[in-house]
Amino acid sequence: MLGELITHSLVLVLGYAYPAFECFKCVEKNRVDIQQLRFWCQYWIVVGLVRVIESVGDIFISWIPMYSEVKLALFIYLWYPKSKGTTYIYGAVLKPFVSEHEGDIERSVLQLKDRAWDLVLFYWQNCTDLGQEKFFNLLDFLATGRMLTTPQSSNSKHKDDDQQCAGAPAGPLPPPPATVKSGFFRRHK
Question: Taking the domains of the chain in order of start, what are their residue ranges?
């Protein structure tokens, strides 16, 4: 338990904090060294990719013994001045793969963005419709003192029976006023 805490702390310090500080120093120099800036950009690209893979595959790889230690060793390998593993991994693995599939990746990202926007609009529309309906129900309740019931259910039948037993006037309740569903944000295709 304590070993895990120490390892996770070292990963945070040596995998994220120290490289972020080195990158900050590189950016804030009076004369920026392009090669060093390029190296740190490549480092953060590789670390971002590792983080994405880790998020997706964490269920399958986190149980491996010494997983955190291997991750710590990978981060140190990536930025250590003598190995500069970032340059190798970026140049030999990542750059050729992304260059070859750049069009497909771009198309997939655009499709995912469109689907996500459609999903956001769908849920926004449903939430506004539901919110509008509940708001009008609340206004009607405040004005008349009773709730609107849209669907006739067995619960409303029991409520009617309870009202009749309590001395309420017999007979069916008048139908609720029709509500017009109109969302604030509608996407027309």
Answer: 1-83, 84-142
